[in-house]
Amino acid sequence: MVLLLRCVAKGAAEQPAPDTKLTLEMRASTASKIYALSTYRPRKGTIRPYARGFLSEISSCRVGDPGRNNGPGHMWNVGNLFNLAGQTAGLQLSASGDTVTISRVTYVSSPTQSLASSLTGNGLISGQVIYFGHGGSAIIPVNGTPTKYSALFVGQDPVSDENLTARNVGALSNSMFGPNVTFTLNNCHAAMGGTTSIAQSVANQLRRRVYAYTVGMFFSVDPHARVPNGNPPNHTPVYMRAWGGSNPQAFDPQ
Amino acid sequence: MSYRSEPRASEHCPGKCFGRASARQIVSVPVLFALLMLGTTAATIATSLPDEKSPREVVQQLCRLDADGGRFTERGWYRATQFFVRPEPMPSALSLVVMKGDFSIGPAKVHGTEAEVGAEYLVLGRIDSTLRFVRADDSPEPTKWRYFYTLILSDVHSDFKEDRQTLREVHGPLEWRIKDFQAQPVVSVVAAIRYVEAKRSSPNPMIRRNAARTLAELSNSQ
Asked: For residue A10, what are the CA distances in angstroms to A7, A13, A96, A98?
């Protein structure tokens, strides 16, 4: 379950500053409703399911399948919130003069609706890439031993091409990236593990700086929220925030 | 004014109606007989096929067994060997993964005689062989896990000899089994508490201390 936000600056002179993504939230609403992401069940009737692949321009979003509610303690369905968080960031980037496209992706390397195809199939990217989705660990058998990998859960089903790990990160290409592109991973625990994290794997593969969080994340209408406190609305602005207000870690290619 | 449009068959023309029913029966008896024969044949074929579970069912059953603490006992551990191509003997001290809530099983991807099935968990942490509870990834909140099982369809698997240590090759019915052994069961909080409570009376003070802390943490996680 992913939203990928791609920002294309209008020419080199108008390219966003490297820290644009960090200042985005500073200009946003100061409302106080907050909502916990993914590991916390949404309150009834507040959010409609929204999870599987949509790929569209920001002005013509398409809504995909509902997400998974797998029972008590296993509610991963965050409704429309990844989409809203992506739209919020997109609107702010657009307001600052960028051309922004929002892609919804389900797979890692499929010809369509995949993270790989969305990075290469939408023209040159010279600004930043922001990813919104679930993250965690994928335990995959390697030579007979179950091995744990830091992962982005791109799709909503536990099938191999819906998870991005160090094993299949090679499917991603920087062929359409400008030299100053940065990639921000807005998902739980993407920086966990440091050099073995999926954030480091993406940085190594794309040869660009990646920002990611070691902690879990939640949704809020408050761009400065440190802890969840209530339900976010089903409209923008909605922000993905790190627990405790942690700052993202930067990962440079190794 | 009252009127009756049609006399009821049972009241006014029993013979005629009986005659119609007989005609239907004449038609339907051979049809019913044929259907009965077909059904019997189908049932015979069905019972003659091996009781083959789908890859998803195999994983579902293992995860259910584990979640409920089925592999805490020696009997349960060796009962679970039916799910694996090459099982391993029960360790002297178990190491557990504790999940919040319940697991869920994804769709199976089958390629010939090999299949992949994923299970999803919200993991709280691990309990090691000294009953020490460690949060998953040192994270204060639960972390999402996707555990991928590879299964193969085969009529050959390994099973334990009477000593329950040595494996032997067994030929049996064609069935799906998990290729890679899973040594750490993923258990529910309730099952984990039950396990720790059963082991807390260890003579080792470190284990008793760990058990008390683990029980406190798990109770808060429920």
From this structure: 10, 8, 10, 6
Q: What confidence tens digit (pLDDT) does each residue in B156-171 have?
A: 999 888 888 888 899 9
What is the value of ipTM here, to two decimals?
Answer: 0.74
- A:B CB pairs within 8 Å: 105
Determine whether the interchain pair B144/A139 forms a contact, defined as Cβ–Cβ distance below 8 Å. no
For helices B189-199 and B205-221, angle between their N-to-C axes, nearest 10 degrees: 160
- Are B106 and A188 an interchain contact pair (Cβ–Cβ within 8 Å)? no
Rounded to whole angstroms, the maximal C-alpha distance in chain A is: 53
Does the beta-carbon distance from A192 to B139 stay under 8 Å? yes
How far is CA B213 from each of CA A219, B199, B206, B209, B222, rounded to the nearest angstrom? Answer: 32, 13, 11, 6, 15
Q: Give me the half-sphere count of Cα atoms (radius 13 Å) on the Cβ side of residue B36.
A: 6
- Enter the tokens of residue B7: 């006399």
Tell me the pTM: 0.75
Please identify which residue in the block is written with the tokens 């500073």: A26
Question: Among partner residues A72, A160, A189, which is closest to B148 by beta-carbon distance?
Answer: A160
**Which residue does chain A place closest to B108, by CA atoms?**
A159
Query: B158 with B146: CB under 8 angstroms?
Result: no
Tens of pLDDT, residue by residue over B176-195, are 999 999 999 999 999 999 99
Whether B109 and chain A come into contact, CB under 8 Å, resolves to yes
Q: Which of A73, A141, A193 sits opposite B101 (nearest CB)?
A: A73
- H or E stretch at B61: helix B55-67
CB contact under 8 Å between A216 and B179, yes or no, is no
